[in-house]
Amino acid sequence: xxxxxxxxxxxxxxxxxxxxxxxxxxxxxxxxxxxxxxxxxxxxxxxxxxxxxxxxxxxxxxxxxxxxxxxxxxxxxxxxxxxxxxxxxxxxxxxxxxxxxxxxxxxxxxxxxxxxxxxxxxxxxxxxxxxxxxxxxxxxxxxxxxxxxxxxxxxxxxxxxxxxxxxxxxxxxxxxxxxxxxxxxxxxxxxxxxxxxxxxxxxxxxxxxxxxxxxxxxxxxxxxxxxxxxxxxxxxxxxxxxxxxxxxxxxxxxxxxxxxxxxxxxxxxxxxxxxxxxxxxxxxxxxxxxxxxxxx
Length: 296
Hints:
The chain is built from seven helices and 16 strands. By secondary structure, the protein is an alpha/beta fold.
């Protein structure tokens, strides 16, 4: 089957500061505008691009940063998408209803419409307090961007191979990952493996800069795009803002799936231990010592 459907994607790597939401949004929108003018059809912003990374602090006042899909951030993003005639993925701290909060990526279409939303499924509490601020969701929707089927995994989600695999099973040709994280020792390799094992493109868009005195947290930048063979297509600086851009080809996805038969050779019937539960709890966890409970 001949496929000529290409997609030009732009990852807008920016810095965001806690306490300057209006400035963060304005700066991000200007970078989105420039990306659209350069020919990008799908533009991705990092996680917490509008609020800055407030989860390194515990302050109930930060919960007031949460917005609905009709709040100022998505309203402005929708206006920019319509003006630029492009798709934009923007992740916000979402209040779904009073008391129910999520870390949510919105896909906005070229008419300013909300094409769909993905809510983060893994909330970390390692260098941050994300678990306090929002709850994890439990589904992996995919969305259409032209001829492409696009999935979204937010930051920590990508550290779990099941997340990207679920999106691949749902038909994703491209997985986009908005990020707000420090520099990891296996950063490139993580996304190269996710792309290779699922035979799809992966595009990760990270914050840069520091937050807090000391600083308390320094973000790793290096937004990147990886092809279905696990090869690095394009990448950004670890410290500087910038646009990471590439034109992706659906024919490259299909070609990789013809050459490497991972989908043919998968054996889901053998993977039952991944989802076995008893009384709402995992049946077993071989990573724990004998007698140790993962629910303490």
